[in-house]
């Protein structure tokens, strides 16, 4: 999967699929399922590392997990998500962080949130030769400035700003845009106005593709579930059952059974004694 493939999907009216991954096993399975884009999202902070928000995660943590994901991916387009700590500071530092995703982790592109202050950084990263996926609407890294984790663009004024930001990011050279938590009609307008693919997460049906956080959609993250998430499995309950059963069988001398044990020949055991 490459950028041309993704752009052709938009032209042909074929939907793009995106899921997040944070380790080799999940990346391998997502890739085998034929998902188009795998994002090593900064949602890693909360979904896997146990932080309360995405803000504390470092570039080193992101790169560590992105490298593991890369080992599990053969066909999907791999995108590294710039954490807040990686996208702050001088433009030259941000470019170096973006380059780490490509050089150290083998990512095909990076994602960076917002337009506005981030626009010059987006342009500089693209100029350095790295492909960029933009992100408008609800931008979790700066959610406090947007009134919290709320749907964005519900009135004409804020919706027009999101449209303008989307156009600016396309003009800057982004190959695709994430549209997060915006009304479906606004997402439809942006999708129709842009020549690059739009991928929605909580943005309705009319985007060129859809995204979900994997640990949300398989039930591995249970602190809260956003309205836009559909749970396709509840692995946390299945895993809990397995862990409890293991405990019971160990304590009840049911595990390990003979078929799980290695047996020495009787003569060798006699000699050993």
Task: Walk me through what this model shows.
The protein has helices spanning 3-12, 24-32, 44-47, 59-72, 84-87, 91-103, 119-127, 156-172, 184-193, 214-217, 235-251, 266-272; strands at residues 16-20, 37-40, 77-81, 109-111, 132-137, 176-180, 198-201, 209-212. By secondary structure, the chain is an alpha/beta fold. The chain folds into 2 domains: 3-233, TIM Barrel (Alpha-Beta Barrel); 238-272, no CATH class. The protein has an 8-stranded parallel β-barrel with strand order 1-2-3-4-5-6-7-8, surrounded by 7 helices. Helix 8 links the parallel strand 5 (132-137) and strand 6 (176-180). The longest helix has 17 residues, at 156-172. The model has no long low-confidence stretch (mean pLDDT 96).
What would the keywords be for this entry?
single chain; about 270 residues; alpha/beta; TIM Barrel; 2 domains; eight-stranded parallel β-barrel; 8 strands
């Amino acid at each position: 999967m490459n950028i041309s493939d993704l752009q052709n999907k938009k032209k042909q009216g074929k939907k793009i699929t995106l899921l997040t991954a944070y380790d080799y096993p999940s990346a391998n399975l997502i890739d085998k399922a034929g998902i188009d884009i795998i994002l090593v999202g900064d949602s890693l902070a909360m979904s896997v590392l146990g932080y309360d928000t995405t803000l504390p995660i470092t570039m080193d943590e992101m790169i560590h997990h992105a490298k593991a994901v890369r080992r599990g991916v053969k066909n999907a387009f791999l995108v590294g998500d710039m954490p807040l700590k990686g996208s702050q500071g001088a433009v030259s530092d941000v470019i170096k962080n973006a380059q780490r995703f490509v050089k150290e982790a083998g990512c095909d592109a990076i994602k960076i949130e917002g337009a506005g202050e981030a626009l010059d950084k987006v342009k500089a990263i693209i100029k350095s030769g790295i492909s960029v996926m933009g992100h408008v609407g609800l931008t979790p890294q700066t959610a406090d400035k947007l009134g919290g984790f709320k749907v964005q663009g519900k009135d004409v004024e804020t919706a027009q700003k999101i449209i303008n930001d989307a156009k600016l990011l396309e003009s800057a050279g982004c190959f695709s845009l994430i549209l997060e938590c915006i009304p479906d009609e606004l997402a439809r307008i942006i999708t129709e106005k842009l020549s690059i693919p739009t991928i929605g997460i909580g943005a309705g049906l009319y985007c060129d593709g859809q995204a979900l956080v994997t640990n949300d959609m398989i039930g591995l993250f249970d602190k809260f579930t956003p309205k836009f998430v559909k749970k396709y499995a509840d692995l946390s309950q299945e895993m809990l059952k397995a862990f409890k059963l293991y405990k019971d069988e160990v304590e009840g001398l049911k595990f390990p059974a003979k078929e799980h044990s290695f047996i020495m020949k009787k003569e060798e055991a006699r000699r050993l004694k």
